[in-house]
Amino acid sequence: MPVTKSYGSWTSPVSAAMLVSKGAKLQDAWVTADDAVYWLESRPREAGRFVIMRWDPDSDSGVEINPAPFYARTRVHEYGGAPVAVVGDTVYFSHYKDHRLYQAKPGSAPEPLTPAAKMRYADLVWDSARSRLIGVREDHRESDIFAVNTLVAIDPAQPDTGTILAEGYDFFMAPRVSPDGTKLAWVSWNHPNMPWDGTELWVGTFGADGRLADARLVAGGMEESVVQPLWAPDNTLHFISDRTGWWNLYRLKGDQIEAILPMEAEFSGPAWQLGLATYAFAGGDIVAIVAQNGTDQLLRINPDTREVQRLGESYAVFRNVTANAGRLVTIAASPTQSPVVLSYDLGTHTETVVKSAGERPLADADISIPEAVEFPTERGLTAHAWYYAPKNQGFQAPAGEKPPLIVFSHGGPTGQSFPVFSLALQYWTTRGFAVVDVNYGGSAGYGRAYRNRLYGNWGLNDVEDCTNAALYLADQGLADPKRLAIRGGSAGGYTTLACLTFRDVFAAGASYYGVSDLGALARETHKFESRYLDRMIGPYPEDKAVYDARSPLMHADQITNPIIFFQGLDDKIVLPNQAEEMVDQLKQNHIPVAYIPFDGEGHGFVQADTIIRAQEAELYFYAQIMGIPLDEAIDPVAIWNWPNKSQD
To answer: How, if at all, do strands 593-598 and 563-568 pair?
Structure first.
């Protein structure tokens, strides 16, 4: 019989240590022409180091390509992505510690390819006709805020910083060489656009000297987001565009643009990182990840007959698919399955799990399955979320008690929450907390019109939707209206702070490297996002009054409920002063507040000790504020002004 015990105090089979000991974060996976499978995994126990792994059908386990201390990651656009290119048995990668490109050959240590300079590289592809790499280069020699982005070619036989192939735009991504080696396609855009606002697709022809000529604009513009150009084996250019309001797949036939499978669904997501790969060619067919209503399908499409076959039906979310004529590789997950590197034989329809992100230390009866929720919000609109009920087969709550609810506010803010098994989320539900993971208006995955709800409305729309999600669930009897909390990181941290500043609904909140001063973000952030707020709020400093009106720091005197702050001291995106000034204000205003800074952490925590401490400290904080008794041993957190005096 289950033990009767108050929500939030159940004994959980999930410890904070399990979040880092049960596996690795999987980022990219791809398959080569000879069926070798590669993937990137981040290891918290190695300070988050990204390791390139290789597997082939004849081996039992993966082979590590870049031994410690090599760290395969790039900081182009700060968020990076696509730091690796595989050419035969040689692997080229960006080393995070010095931003140089390295080449790793079997049986030898990686060797530097580019010189020591303030250059960053990403989105690498191989130009086989000229035996060279082509990729995005970000030049920081003059300035970080005004770094210069270009497309460059790098000859491994004569390595240098690269020969510029395309320049003149603020940003570049996705250089792709045609199979016959004669052409290059790429995407570029300028401020104030982000790549999900408007981009341009270009095609140029290689001259005898290897440079580009006759570059022409194929698609895109200020209000059309074009991403992921890719050449079919017959040299037909394909790409994804949201010209209809949905990111759909197109091809260029002569001078005509033709839709492959038009539908109200998303064939791509926002390009926060480089190297998006949501479709690939398997012979003459296309394998594509297609998102509808917050979940994904993996489809095999005949582009001529439009015949469609669904693959991998036991999974609900897919990331970065690549393929050759007979095999596809993707990262797949479901509400009960943490991400795996999945190899799928297109002939036999056999699935092979090459690598799992981690063991699942939970019985099926302890797993909270997400429920899609569409709830009413402001202006007669509805918004989306995933609701997770408290779940632990060993416990039940006293009759009539309602669970505390934690609202998860994702980052971005043009991000998305997915119905994927997460040990970090189940950490809460197995203790008796309910969780709602909100895809507020502005989130990706629901079409451009939904995404555009944030235009001019950041700090309003997201706050309304996160607040209304909590109130809706409380009205449904699924949450205790007096024990509502909200948490989020980065932009989600801003929404958390704004909800606690401008609404009186949440009893507590947790901000992970969140924005408190929007004006400071506009003035101080990196190049990629330095004009992001133009659309979401307005141009700065012209609309400084709007920035101030929506900045929690400027209205800290309105905050009446406790907040805990977590901040990486090496964060270059949201600087530590964003948290520290807010903490000082709350101390002075006699509001309960806690602050935990972490040396060596940037924007997003990757080190094992950090992840463990933050998870436990957040639980301790909620327990103190909500009066939840804890049976587990957790190092206390100093909470200033709690219960009625400052803490040393």
So the answer is: parallel
Residue 17, C-beta contacts closer than 8 angstroms, at least 6 positions apart: 612
Rg (CA), the chain: 24
- Taking each helix axis from N to C end, the angle separating 461-475 and 491-502, rounded to the nearest 10 degrees, works out to 70
Residue type for 496, please?
T
Instruction: Give the model's pLDDT for residue 357.
Output: 86
Compute the distance between CA of residue 172 and CA of residue 190 in angstroms, rounded to an integer.
9
Low-confidence ranges of the chain (pLDDT < 70): 22-23, 57, 59-61, 644-648
CA 423 – CA 407 distance, rounded (Å) = 16
Token code pair at residue 112: 């530097």
Q: State the number of CA atoms in the 13 A half-sphere of 224 facing the CB.
A: 14
DSSP-derived letter for residue 453 is G
pLDDT in tens, 55-95: 876 766 688 999 999 999 999 999 999 999 999 999 999 99
| Amino acid at residue number 513 | Y
Which residues touch 91 (CB under 8 Å, ≥6 apart)?
Answer: 38, 52, 54, 65, 66, 84, 85, 103, 104
H helix intervals, 353-447:
423-429
In Å, what is the CA distance from 256 to each residue of 237, 240, 395, 590, 618? 11, 15, 62, 65, 55
Q: What is each CA distance from 250 to 206, 344, 501, in whole angstroms?
A: 24, 25, 45
Query: How do residues 504-544 score in pLDDT, each as one tens digit?
Result: 999 999 999 999 999 999 998 889 999 999 999 999 999 99
The domain ranges of the chain are 362-626
Vertex 237: Cα angle to 231 and 243 (nearest 5): 125
Residue 36 has what pLDDT? 92
Give the H or E element holding residue 119: strand 119-127
Side chain identity at 234, as an amino acid letter?
A: D
pTM value is 0.94
Q: Are 344 and 350 in contact (CB under 8 A)?
A: yes
Which amino acid type is present at position 114?
T
Stated as kind and residue range, the H or E segment containing 500 is: helix 491-502
- Looking up tokens 């390509």 gives 65
**8 Å CB contact between 171 and 187:** no
Provide the terminal-to-terminal Cα distance of the chain, rounded to the nearest Å. Answer: 44
Let me know: does 596 contact 613? Beta carbons within 8 Å. yes
**CATH fit for domain 362-626, picks 3.30.565.60, 3.40.50.1260, 3.40.50.1820, 3.30.470.20:** 3.40.50.1820
Quick check: 481 and 445 in contact, CB under 8 A?
no
Question: Do 454 and 424 form a contact (C-beta atoms < 8 A)?
Answer: no
Judged by DSSP in three states, 528 sits in coil
DSSP string, 83-98: -EEEETTEEEEEBTTT
Cα four-point dihedral sign 64, 70, 71, 74: negative
Q: 309-331 pLDDT, tens per residue?
A: 999 999 999 999 999 999 999 99
Q: Which residue has the tokens 């770094």?
A: 147
Alpha carbons 229 and 279: distance in angstroms, whole number = 10
**Nearest CA to 372 among 385, 391, 381?**
385
